[in-house]
Write a structure and sequence with these properties.
Blueprint lengths: L3 E4 L5 H13 L2 E4 L6 H11 L3 E4 L2 E4 L10 E7 L7 E6 H15 L8 E3 L6 H13 L3 E3 L5 H9 L4 E5 H4 L9 E5 L11 E7 L4 E5 L2 E2 L4 E5 L7 E6 L6 E2 L6 E2 L8 E10 L5 E6 L4 E3 L2 E3 L1 H8 L5 E11 L3 E10 L6 H12 L7 E4 L18
Helix pairs in contact: 3-4, 7-8
């Protein structure tokens, strides 16, 4: 029987050692998040159904767990509904392919480089750094709290490569690292030369598109494009999930009858140079007065205002326009006015894309890895 081992330890040497031991034993593993509340933890365990749990008190068997299939390596909860979490299953072949592809693309040399693990390992962005290091025999260090001081100290102590979310980038001196991999949220308009933006998800085993270009062995396509070339992104990759624990994966037959294309549910377009431009989730598109508005486009424009520290754009029902654009803004100093926001968006994107209202907030709802929880805006 192939166990599914749930590791319930904080990020640190003990967790990393347990990940390595589980992989080497041929079992599958999943990581529990110590920050979960009781209800979230219970829902996660129902979705994961591990057979073994490892925590500070030791190792114990869970009689109601469900064994993994032979060859399974990771089971990771996908970002989505808290009430109905999906647990993506990644095989050892998929995980090994991801480790090799990403290391090659980033030019990682195990004799010279060292990864820093600092993102929550319950998410693929954090776990993939650990697994990649183990499978490629690349040195690894970890910090449990990615504060400015700890991140910069780790770099001075020898960490050369790190995966960060965008909000952490602005808190450190990025020149201390050789390579910074950015994911989890839209990158800043201007970023250091040593940063690499990634596009991917739990179901792709981490990032598979770097700076708009697919990694070696990865294919991307956009289907059912509109007049602007924006359609749903499909991905074919050796890193794709096998299935979910309790349901089939959204794998389809894609262009040229290639099997195992992942229907991502994300919208994007292939630019004139062939680079992938991601426009956000299909369900996030706002249709106002018959015009499509992509929230991430509007957010990028509003962020040009010095008075804006953070912004999130969503929709509200409108009796005249069907839906209207609403911007939630965390101000930087004196708050911008609605006229200022509408003016800059109208000039850049057109009046139909301009927010019809703004709300000033102290913070935006985000996941543990910094992803915007757009569904929590109201």
């Amino acid at each position: 029987m192939t166990n599914l081992v749930a590791i319930d330890l904080p990020l640190g040497p003990a967790l990393i050692d347990e990940v390595a031991a589980t992989l080497h034993a041929g079992d599958a593993l999943t990581i529990l998040d110590p920050r979960w509340g009781a209800e979230t933890r219970a829902q996660a365990l129902l979705a994961l159904r591990p057979t073994v749990i490892v925590d500070a008190s030791g190792r114990s068997r869970l009689p109601e767990g469900v064994a993994a299939e032979e060859g399974d390596a990771l089971v990771v909860l996908s970002s989505g509904s808290v009430a109905d979490p999906k647990a993506a299953v990644l095989t050892i072949d998929a995980v090994a392919a991801s480790a090799q592809m990403t290391s090659t693309a980033l030019g990682v040399d195990p004799t010279r480089h060292r990864w820093l693990a600092c993102l929550p390992p319950s998410h693929i962005g954090g776990l993939s750094v650990i697994v990649r290091s183990i499978l490629t025999a690349t040195p690894l260090q970890s910090i449990d709290q990615p504060t400015t001081e700890l991140l910069e100290t780790a770099a001075r102590d020898g960490a050369t490569h790190v995966s960060l979310v965008t909000r952490l980038l602005g808190r450190i001196d990025p020149s201390l690292f050789e390579v910074i991999v950015l994911g989890g949220a839209a990158p800043p308009a201007e970023r250091p030369a040593n940063t690499v933006t990634t596009y991917g998800m739990t179901e792709t085993g981490s990032g598979v598109v770097y700076d708009g270009r697919p990694l070696a062995g990865v294919e991307i396509d956009v289907i059912d494009p509109d007049s602007d070339g924006v359609g749903e992104i499909l991905i074919a990759s050796p890193t794709l999930l096998r299935a979910y624990r309790d349901r089939p994966a959204p794998l389809v037959v894609g262009p040229d009858a290639m099997p195992r294309w992942l229907a991502t549910g994300d919208l994007g377009r292939l630019g004139s140079t062939g680079l992938l431009e991601v426009r956000g989730r299909a369900g996030d598109v706002i249709v106002t007065g018959g015009e499509k508005v992509y929230p991430e486009d509007v957010e990028a424009v509003i962020m040009r205002l010095d008075a804006v520290a953070e912004v999130a754009v969503t929709r509200r029902t409108d009796p005249e326009w069907g839906e209207r654009v609403v911007a939630f803004i965390v101000p930087s100093g004196e708050a911008p006015t609605l006229d200022e926001v509408r003016g800059i968006v109208s000039e850049a994107l057109g009046r139909f894309a301009a927010p019809r209202e703004i709300e000033l907030v102290d913070h935006l709802p985000r996941t543990a890895i910094g992803k915007l929880r757009r569904s929590a805006l109201s």
